[in-house]
């Protein structure tokens, strides 16, 4: 039974919308493989039809219009409804196909329950920041999300709702039908109460009352708070008999949407043509790189080379442990000052351990154009008056890491913002659904994960397999830099990574003899360290020879591979082995994803043909990919707790002395086996050489790179993969 009164003018106003809804249901009947006939979906056709016909700002001929309203559905169960309306409005066919967001204003945020709500909050937050930056003459759209009751009841949705209420995102409306969960109405009511308590305006209307639905949508537009519209019942009233009066539409009940959107867009284009920030607005919304960004970036690093740090991370040896963390956060601060679209976020039970409110880098305040960015005296505690992120001050989300990364998905999907979130490595298990969704959709975002101090994390959530699980995620690039130059290279490569999220892991390390402010020890042969620019270029390949063995690649007896803070330990072990007349090379492998994309000749030249030993204070799962058949892994493969970083490394043999002993043991066993009759000298026999927590699993597929390895007699070289010529080559080129 329909509640709209067609004898009145108001009732007649919604006849077109009802035809729109009826046509959409007819379109949905062609969907296959999806439960489009669910009563919960049927109950939403009328409210969506009224929204699209009367309120939604959308031009089907330009689905990527920057100031178009964002309309998304949170579940694949709602996709038939979305597809039907897209077809009726004449949207391009490629935008109708099921997807996880492709940069258009209309689409799906399909993922685990609650992820759609978090993404919608992120989209609305992006709109508010862009409006504060460019003005409402260019940015004046709304975000509409069609969700299910399961989305509202998810923990990440409740966290995101609290954030939306705190930031007063009054241009956000979530529409949900209660017909999905007839057996759990109590749970839905409880979720609605929680959302209302977070500062939302909640309205409940009958799904078949066109007049009430129209009034509720208009009220949502006028609200100064985020809105939740609950449609009760499973009948949308589209089966009512309607008599045409000949005035309805020339080409169908949906043309009014296209006509209104086309007029709004043409008016907006005229405003854009006259706007003084047109060029910057187009660059930002099209995600184009800022001119001279890398030059400004490197100039800022050169300026702050000796600037005292204001970061603090309290561990046993603060100076040694915090250097990588400090440099990683400094890179975030520089980008915050250089890139207006860079949005820095931080979450954690104690965010001050990782980011400080006074962590801005003064050297990054001036760009190459001489323009100095102002530093507002406001804080982000009142986003309603200062919606633009204050330079150098990230948005703090407390212990809401899942919601933070979910919001970052929304920022990425909206466009015009580059999100960067900071959390601890132990929170990977909480943010994995949102991070995996970003990888699945190929969304660009940046994450800084600070490794936990074992002294505080030992009894809570020790990190072991987190690095391996992130490296196993498709489309995700994980960077684990070992010093300042690798931090700089990691940031630059993360900015260039467009296939999905880029994660930079900032590690803590115990003090070694070679610890210095921002760099490793000098070359063990007595040579000067390589130039910073050359090292940055080499690190951009994902892996490179950090220190070659005396005598060059052909003289290698072993190769030590490391990433992150363990790189300093590998260098110390190299020095100890040189005293024993054992010639080893040290290879840094900060990013597996980039290294795997290099050609096989380059990888073979870096890894060499000698036995390999890998060092990492984490699980050895996956390291067999680079160690080969005879490799040895030294790391952490269990949950044994340690009272501090030094103790942790010592317990698992991750020390210069421990690495030296394992290398000598490996080389000694090779010599012994070579003397056994019938045993191949290249070690092809499948022999388990080590046991316990220090040994990684062996691979069933042996690859011998020694037949394609590059030969270079130069005693000191950073392999770049660009040329096989020695520095003193005289071939005339």
From TrEMBL:
Instruction: Please note every region of biased composition (Basic and acidic residues).
Output: 351-360, 701-715, 723-733
Q: Where is this region: Disordered?
A: 347-386, 676-733
The highest taxon in the source lineage is: Bacteria
The residues covered by the Transketolase-like pyrimidine-binding domain are 367-506
Please give the Gene3D superfamilies that the UniProt record associates with this protein. Answer: 3.40.50.920, 3.40.50.970
GO cellular component terms attached to this protein's record: cytosol
Q: What is this protein called?
A: Transketolase
Keyword Iron carried by entry? no
């Amino acid at each position: 039974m329909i509640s709209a009164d067609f004898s009145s003018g108001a009732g007649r106003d919604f006849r077109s919308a009802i035809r729109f809804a009826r046509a959409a249901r007819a379109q949905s009947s062609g969907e296959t493989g999806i439960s489009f006939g669910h009563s919960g979906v049927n109950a939403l056709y009328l409210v969506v039809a009224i929204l699209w016909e009367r309120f939604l700002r959308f031009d089907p001929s330009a689905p990527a219009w920057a100031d178009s309203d964002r309309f998304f559905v949170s579940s694949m169960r709602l996709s038939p409804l979305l597809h039907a309306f897209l077809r009726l409005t004449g949207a391009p066919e490629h935008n109708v196909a099921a997807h996880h967001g492709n940069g258009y204003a209309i689409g799906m945020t399909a993922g685990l329950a609650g992820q759609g709500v978090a993404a919608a909050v992120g989209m609305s937050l992006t709109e508010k920041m862009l409006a504060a930056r460019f003005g409402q003459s260019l940015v004046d759209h709304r975000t509409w999300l069609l969700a299910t009751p399961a989305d509202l009841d998810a923990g990440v949705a409740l966290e995101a709702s609290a954030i939306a209420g705190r930031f007063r995102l009054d241009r956000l409306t979530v529409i949900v039908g209660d017909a999905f969960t007839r057996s759990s109405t109590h749970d839905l009511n409880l979720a609605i109460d929680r959302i209302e308590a977070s500062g939302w305006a909640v309205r409940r209307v009958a799904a078949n009352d066109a007049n009430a639905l129209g009034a509720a949508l208009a009220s949502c537009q006028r609200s100064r708070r985020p809105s939740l519209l609950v449609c009760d019942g499973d009948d949308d009233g589209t089966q009512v008999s309607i008599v045409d009066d000949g005035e309805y539409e020339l080409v169908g009940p949906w043309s009014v949407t296209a006509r209104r959107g086309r007029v709004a867009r043409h008016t907006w284009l005229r405003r854009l043509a006259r706007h003084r920030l047109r060029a910057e607005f187009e660059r930002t919304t099209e995600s184009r790189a800022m001119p001279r960004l890398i030059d400004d970036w490197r100039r800022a690093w050169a300026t702050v080379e000796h600037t005292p740090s204001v970061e603090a991370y309290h561990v046993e040896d603060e100076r040694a442990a915090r250097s990588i963390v400090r440099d990683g956060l400094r890179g975030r601060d520089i980008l915050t000052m250089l890139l207006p679209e860079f949005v820095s976020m931080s979450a954690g039970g104690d965010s001050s351990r990782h980011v400080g409110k006074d962590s801005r880098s003064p050297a990054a305040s001036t760009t190459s154009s001489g323009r100095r960015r102002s530093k507002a005296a406001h804080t982000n505690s009142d986003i309603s008056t200062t919606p633009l992120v204050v330079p150098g001050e990230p948005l703090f989300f407390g212990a809401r890491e899942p919601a933070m990364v979910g919001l970052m998905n929304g920022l990425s999907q909206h466009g015009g913002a580059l999100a960067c979130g900071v959390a601890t490595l132990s929170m990977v298990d909480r943010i994995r659904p949102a991070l995996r969704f970003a990888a699945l959709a190929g969304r660009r975002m940046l994450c800084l994960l600070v490794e936990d101090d074992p002294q505080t994390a030992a009894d809570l959530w020790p990190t072991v397999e987190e690095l391996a699980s992130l490296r196993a995620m498709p489309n995700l690039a994980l960077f684990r830099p070992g010093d300042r130059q690798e931090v700089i290279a990691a940031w630059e490569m993360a900015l260039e990574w467009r296939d999905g999220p880029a994660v930079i892991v900032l590690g803590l390390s115990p003090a070694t003899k070679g610890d210095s402010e921002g760099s490793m020890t000098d070359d063990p042969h007595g040579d000067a360290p390589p130039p910073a620019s050359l090292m940055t270029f080499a690190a951009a390949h994902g892996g490179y020879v950090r220190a070659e063995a005396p005598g060059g690649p052909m003289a290698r007896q072993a190769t030590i591979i490391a990433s992150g803070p363990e790189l300093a330990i590998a260098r110390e072990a190299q020095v100890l082995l040189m005293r024993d007349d054992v010639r080893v090379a040290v290879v840094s492998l900060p990013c597996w994803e980039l290294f795997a994309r290099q050609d096989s000749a380059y990888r073979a030249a870096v890894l060499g043909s000698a036995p390999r030993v890998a060092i990492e204070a984490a699980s050895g799962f996956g390291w067999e990919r680079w160690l080969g058949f005879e490799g040895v892994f030294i790391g952490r493969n269990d949950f044994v707790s340690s009272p501090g970083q030094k103790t942790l490394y010592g317990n698992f043999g991750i020390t210069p002395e421990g690495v030296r002993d394992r290398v000598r043991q490996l080389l000694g066993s090779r010599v012994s086996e070579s003397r056994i009759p019938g045993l191949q000298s290249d070690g092809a026999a499948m022999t388990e050489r080590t046991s316990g927590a220090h040994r990684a699993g062996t691979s069933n597929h042996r690859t011998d790179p020694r037949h394609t390895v590059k030969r270079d007699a130069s005693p000191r070289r950073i392999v770049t993969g660009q040329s096989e010529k020695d520095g003193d080559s005289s071939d005339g080129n």
